[in-house]
Amino acid sequence: MAESGRQGRRRQRRSEDRDVSGLNAAYMRMRNPFAPQSVYSADEIAAIHDGALRILEELGIRVLLDEAREILRLGGALVDGGSGMVRIGREMVSSALASAPRSIRLRAANSDREQDYTLGTMLFMAGAGCPNVFDRDRGRRPGDFNGYLETLRLQQSFDVIHMHGPSVEPQDVPINLRHYAMMRGQLENCDKPLFVYSRGRQQVEESFEMIRLAYGLDEAGFTDGVWATTVINSNSPRQLDVPMSLGIIDFARAGQMSIITPFCLAGAMAPITVSGALMLQHAEALAGITLAQMTRTGAPVSYGGFLSNVDMKSGSPAFGTPEHIRASVGSGQLARHIGLPWRSATGAASNCADAQAATETVMALWGAVLGGATVTVHAAGWLEGGLTLGYEKFILDIEALQTVAELSRRDPADAASLGFDAVAEVQPGGHFFSTAHTMERYQTAFYKPLVADLSNHGTWIENGSLTADQRATAVWRQRLAQFSPPAACEGMAGKLDSWVQDKISSGGAKPED
Amino acid sequence: MAESGRQGRRRQRRSEDRDVSGLNAAYMRMRNPFAPQSVYSADEIAAIHDGALRILEELGIRVLLDEAREILRLGGALVDGGSGMVRIGREMVSSALASAPRSIRLRAANSDREQDYTLGTMLFMAGAGCPNVFDRDRGRRPGDFNGYLETLRLQQSFDVIHMHGPSVEPQDVPINLRHYAMMRGQLENCDKPLFVYSRGRQQVEESFEMIRLAYGLDEAGFTDGVWATTVINSNSPRQLDVPMSLGIIDFARAGQMSIITPFCLAGAMAPITVSGALMLQHAEALAGITLAQMTRTGAPVSYGGFLSNVDMKSGSPAFGTPEHIRASVGSGQLARHIGLPWRSATGAASNCADAQAATETVMALWGAVLGGATVTVHAAGWLEGGLTLGYEKFILDIEALQTVAELSRRDPADAASLGFDAVAEVQPGGHFFSTAHTMERYQTAFYKPLVADLSNHGTWIENGSLTADQRATAVWRQRLAQFSPPAACEGMAGKLDSWVQDKISSGGAKPED
Fold first, then answer.
1. Residue A311: its chain B contacts at CB < 8 A?
2. Cβ proximity of A359 and A107 under 8 Å
3. Cα separation of B399 and B390, whole Å?
4. How are beta strands A388-390 and A132-135 bridged, if at all?
5. What is the mean pLDDT of residues B338-351?
6. What is the DSSP string of A412-435?
7. In angstroms, what separates the C-alpha of B357 from chain A's closest C-alpha?
8. Is the ipTM of this complex over 0.90?
9. Is residue A494 classed exposed, middle or buried when 0-12, 13-18 and 19+ CB atoms within 10 A define those classes?
10. Chain A 167-196, residues with CB within 8 Å of chain B CB atoms
11. How many other CB atoms are there within 10 angstroms of residue A269's CB atom?
12. Does the beta-carbon distance from B314 to A269 stay under 8 Å?
């Protein structure tokens, strides 16, 4: 944005007015501080990659959109029009992988919020796509526009959330008008990289148009940068439906980013072994990446993995299990094998923000971090495997994300930090409270908890014996009460009002399915 | 034990009778599946190590026990008898590090439970030393012998706990008789490597004697193997008190293992920076290791680190914070720098088994795992920073430990596991439930949760909307109800009864302080 002339400079100045010093600034640009881990040998990763190529070459993938099949046919794929099956040769995949960018600049209304989406960057996105919301004040209820807006504002309120996601499905807005409401919500309240659902060509194009209107971009200026991201879920196994195929094509043509994310549940829609499910995930992701690159060479795409196991008792997806962690680390190995940035996810199956939910999400978070995920989706607020966005869970997860974020800052170990003189000053058995070394640092030395209460048992009892989820209610309430849109959103309503009114009057745009 | 003749063979057979197949066997011998991480550069680690050597050389450490000062003086240290200060040269430290063993075989009543205590091994020990206990049935109460025994039995019940620890302080047993009760508890209920408190020479010697009696070992047979472990906490900063100095000496002489663990809270008993606190921790640990090696060359010792920050609001120790994780990974770097196995710890400051408690412990667990800790202490059950052992928290933590334990097993990625044929068999958009590949594996494919409930919201409500800690109550109840001592404990009471009665009659042994 800073590069785009007068308006860019104006926004740049505004964003400097905002307090981006201290901890928050550190949260806004994060590198993964850990070396990526491996759960498979290099040979095994090569075998999984080769198996995926064989799937595409020998078995093929069913593509339900004629236009997508035609693009792939022109790129060299073998297409069976009757069954919709498309067989993609390995040289096509290689060529797609060669042209897919390794690093993608995600643009944002606030240039401080822009991100380099690449291996090594560490980004978090909130829980997305939830049909229900829950908070302790109002209970569990179907997602509505108010819930969408509130959780969007919570996303904006924490710097450790880097990309916006459609946290809650606003089911009180008619489906043909919903994309207007969702885009307005983002444009009027948020200044981070935006999300657009792939729910058909017209909705996508109109969402792009709203971004152009809002940010004062012409078609070329828009296409030249990545202003919107979508998530593409294949219908595992081996199927790409109409809206998903359209999404890949439309985002590629417009130069916007698709995150190609098969949702493979081992033992259900994928082989029951983690390695086998990874092979299927890899095949489907490669098919989507190939379609994007055949649509437009160099189109911004991300590898994606969302692979876990099903609970054998309930059939529900599991999160933070050994299989989930293994799959995340393995997905990271596959992403590095092909050299592309990638998306992972956390989540929780728990029905409430209890110890199970925390364990699931924190375990899954470490899987994503150790897998070197570029972005970790559903990183805050998911309950019930994504059926509910919990406000308290969101706040509790922010604490976990901030903990990891702090680790992305290097801790100094120079002579001044080591403080040999302070050690010399304090007598054996004494304390460091009043040393100059402590006094100079005590206000910023440690992470300040958001929800964690470290008071002793007596004080905790006196204060009402509140559990962490009970305390989290006050945190989201306060954040919402003090919310005001960031500077970049100033005057946004005026820019969009009449355009949106016109669209609504002409009946909106139905999603495709 | 297997090597020790007739009796050893008998135990060996018994342990084979026990079901050690499947998952449990995998939990009993674990290697850390992750590459150790770094938070400091090699130069920074060298600087921290050097700073620690300077502390010992230039500032010294106060040693309150005459005998320990004399051992160090004979080893070349400069001793000031008046102040108790001992200055230890770096050549003494080098020589101690050269003679400290890199790998220590921990012996156990059940030879299947023996462990190689070395870098790369991954062991867990339950929360230890708690003055209170809590469970949802009986509430919070001072630790008593029943609580000690029950939590010891819970330790024995889960294979993912590898070494016994004194979970609860049995305050209803007089302090001069307490070590008899604690040792009997372990010897009559447990078959894993044992823990002995360093509370004075007589208590330690009598505890050793009970092990010899119980396992039929003569003095030489006992000294020849490591049958007992103790934890030595220095009184940071730079002080080693009488019972701790005695413990190092007595364990070294008897060939038993001391885990030298300074408990350094950054900003309180240590410099406020993590790097500075690590420097102090390292100095104190090196002093203890040196005392052990000067006492007996080759004595089994472990490096130890228990370093976190204090909460600036309450002054309480914090767990699972960024500073705690950083300190654990940094401690691992220092341990590898000197080549010794090492001990880390998890823990929780939370007052109840809620989402905060889970986040704290799981975060801290990953710090220990990524630091490559040989043993992680307090890994199950700690609440209130160790002031309370929570039964439900214990069970919830076991789930987290089992999750990590599962990851220590390699996931196969050979052709049969990948299941290309299964992928070929399932049509696009279909499912894998009934493929042969799934059917052959579904019973063992995934980790089976201990407490996690993955049922959907409706079912969860029908079942009473129980939180994880509420469900955990049933788990510990059932484990205690079905507990029976392992085969190795058979006839143990008979071996100990009269000896212990004699000791009690003659008044027991007071701890030293």
1. 446, 449, 454
2. no
3. 14
4. parallel
5. 98
6. P-SHHHHTHHHHHHSPTT---TTS
7. 7
8. yes
9. exposed
10. none
11. 24
12. no
